């Protein structure tokens, strides 16, 4: 299975979660910054995870641009999951759910509930336990992606 974990990150916290998720999803999984995604970068991907910091209640502009560029049906046959990072005690906005809906709209099968990971301030660090939380979340993705049927277990939020 070809696995790609795409992320945007201003201060490194979302990158850290993306790298943790990729490490848990296996040897062929790579964490790639959205800025480094070339043309055709999604070709052959079976499992796609997308993560973004919340910026002003939404995914970052770069993440939104990526999502807006997904053609209808372009992710058909792809299993997917989404996460965000957010500040504790902020009015969050739910970027993870927005990303998840956009991936689903492009035809992906969502295999895990969208997940928010808490940072302690704008620049981080990640709150205690969130790296371990990312490992557990990734494990649930791996199990669901291997689940019954050609597209794995369906999860709706
Ligand atoms: C311009 C800007 C807007 C932000 N808006 C929100 C917000 O609406 N809700 C929230 O929970 N956090 C907000 N944050 C905090 C980010 O979520 C936090 O900086 C991010 O999770 C850190 O991840 P990173 O290190 O990968 O950039 C904002 C941060 C910046 C820089």
From TrEMBL:
Transmembrane segments: none
Molecular function via GO: electron transfer activity; FMN binding
Family matches, as InterPro entries: Flavodoxin/NO_synth, Flavodoxin_CS, Flavoprotein-like_sf
Domain of life: Bacteria
Pfam families named in the record: Flavodoxin_3
Protein name as it appears in the record: Flavodoxin domain-containing protein
Organism: Cryobacterium psychrotolerans
Organism placement in taxonomy: Bacteria, Bacillati, Actinomycetota, Actinomycetes, Micrococcales
